[in-house]
Design goal:
Structural class: alpha+beta
Helix content: 40-55%
Number of strands: 8
Radius of gyration: 44 Å
CATH superfamily of one domain: Band 7 domain
CATH architecture of one domain: 2-Layer Sandwich
Largest sheet: 3 strands, antiparallel
Length: 257
Amino acid sequence: MPLLPLLIVAVVLLAMSLRIAQEYQRAIVFRLGRYTGTRGPGLYWLIPILERQQTIDMRTKTVELEQQETITKDSVTIKVNAVLWFKVINPADAVIKVADYNKAVYQLSVTALRNIIGQNQLDEVLRERAHINGALLQIVDAATETWGVKIELVEIKDVEIPESMQRAMAREAEAIREKRARIIKAEAELEASIKLTQGAQEMEKSPYSLELRRMQMLSEIGIDNNTTTVIMLPSDFSAAAKSFSQMVTSQTATPKE
């Protein structure tokens, strides 16, 4: 009979010492304050009273960095927020080497975001987000490696600029579009003038081509509902009429004998 209470106590202690870690969890075990190993996933047991554990989630975490007001390299005040994805790859370092790795990663990311924005001009922040994201990822990942944390991705979510700067950028964009339109128009006029010059040179080689072109112009004019029709006579007709007029005038002026 005296063995029954001892058996019951042993069973209770054994049940109390059993632990279960999920597939995405790891248990950091300390025995009398010293790190003894990482347990899990699955079933494991701890020595009652002598050992304690701290469970770490190994899944990827998503953290939204609060909006930061910072100044770019060209002295423009903007507001930027970003999203961070990270996970623990070494649970022992995440527990032993840093007091709160979640808070540490967050504060480091915010500081790095402000610093990297200050190293770039506003145009670079707006156009080269991929480059800035990559640089920010390298900075944060290098610092968190000793904590057993892997930074998987950093993305700038939104960039808010002052209204006065928005109006200035809109005017600049409009001026650029107007400049591009004028350049395109000038290039088109230059190309058209070159083509017209080439066409005139070809017509000059053949009088028949010139006359055919005049007839084509007359047919094009006739298509429109115009009240006035301009008839262009060939140059030979004009020369012949002028010669005939001069001959008639000379004969009229000659006195009769």
